[in-house]
Amino acid sequence: MSDRTTSGLPLRQLLLAVGEPLLEPAAGSLDALVQGVGIFDPDDETGSFAGELVLLVGVRGRGAVRSVRAAARAGAVAVVVKHGGGLDDLRAAAEDSGTALLTVGPRMRWDQLQTLLREVLEAASLAAASTADSGDLFALAQTVAVLTAGSVTIEDAGNRVLAYSRSDDEIDELRRLSILGWEGPEQYLALLREWGVYQRLRSGEEVVRVEERPELGIRRRLAVGIRAGTQHLGTIWVQEGAQPFAERAESALLGAARLAAVQLLRRRSPSVRPREDLVEGLLEGRVSADLVAGHLGLDPSAPATVLAITAREVERDRSEHELHRLEISNVVSVHATSYRRGALVATVGSRVYAVLPDADASLPTVADHVVTVLARAGTRVQAGIGSAVPALGEVSTSRGEADRVLDAMARTPDRHVATISDLRAEILLDETLSLLEENPDLRDPAVGTLVAHDAEHGTELVTSLLAYLDALGDVRAAATGLHIHPNTLRHRLRRAKAIGGLRLDDPRERLVCHLQLLLATR
Fold it and tell me: Range of 145's domain?
């Protein structure tokens, strides 16, 4: 007998919600997707248990080995047995069958456990459905967990849990009960009201610290209200784990609260044009700044700067690539909205863009922190910053510059953050060489003759001449760089002039020659 209740919840998250020691993993992977709960009775005819967690009733110990194998053959992703000895045999059977094995105390009633598991799966399904059109609150919770080094829960204004982060760290009783019941336990909510925590969360934009209460089994927490104007939409909670909170935890929380407000408001008003579409149109210059400002409550006359970020290691697997892109977008969004309240973030192609009003000289530092946070999470990115433009309607210009910076940085992988001012010379040179490459009729055939001569005779006239021009005509410096005698270089230069018919005494001819040599060795 089975009961399919949800599109799926990873077994690891299901165990987190139900909690140990109620259910204890004994064998197998915890990454399987649980889509329902089934009951296996050896006296009944076996049906299909595809994608289900199966409770093995009426058997325990070694006597449950056959039931483990039978449930696995019927598609069970995990089985639950009661403690009763013979655990090694059960583990072996589960591992041979490719299913996970969980154990439960002998006094636990099967009907109670089934009801509990179904409630958790149904709640997860409802939460997933409620956020499907409003952005991924679970992804936001996970991002905040990384940035704060804590365990995150996002609740609505009625203290119902909307999303939570995965946690390999130790969690306290409050977090377990909140996730299990998908709302905060009333006893603790009453204490928070008594301590004035909710009043502070609703009164303004601040991070509230709630000290640990060991006698209640409650660890230290940070909390911030999710607000839209004067309206309280919910709360983000972060529980401290084995490690202390990250240094910038409070700043990350403020940014996350602003993002969560957008997602919750969008869920209430699904007809509103998606924010990302507006920002993408603004970046591409096809949506007016007045339209964007009107929809998002911004000042169209405020100066703005575009920050662009891209991953430098493209995954072969498309799903993994999308996951990393979402992670980058979430981290950029949290930091951008923390840096400037009116920040706009959108993903266009493989790049994530942030439009930052009134950015100041600290923007490169903020970008560097984003790069560092993502690197710690295993995602290597580079950040390019365009020039400040005087109004929102000109951000496409700043976006174009940020793109140029990233294009130039692709050839300097060790550089993590750069502005258009940092790389203006490299960008100008790169675009000039691209122009030469696209227009072969503009090139001097003399350089092509040298390239062909080197290829045919194995000489090094091109690299020698390029080193000479790079050294501004200093023969000794160029020879040192090439690890040859100056006289050897002088001989090569004479040969190059003779073979190609070069006129290096003319500054314009010398510049054109230099550019073509750079293109030839690009």
Answer: 133-268
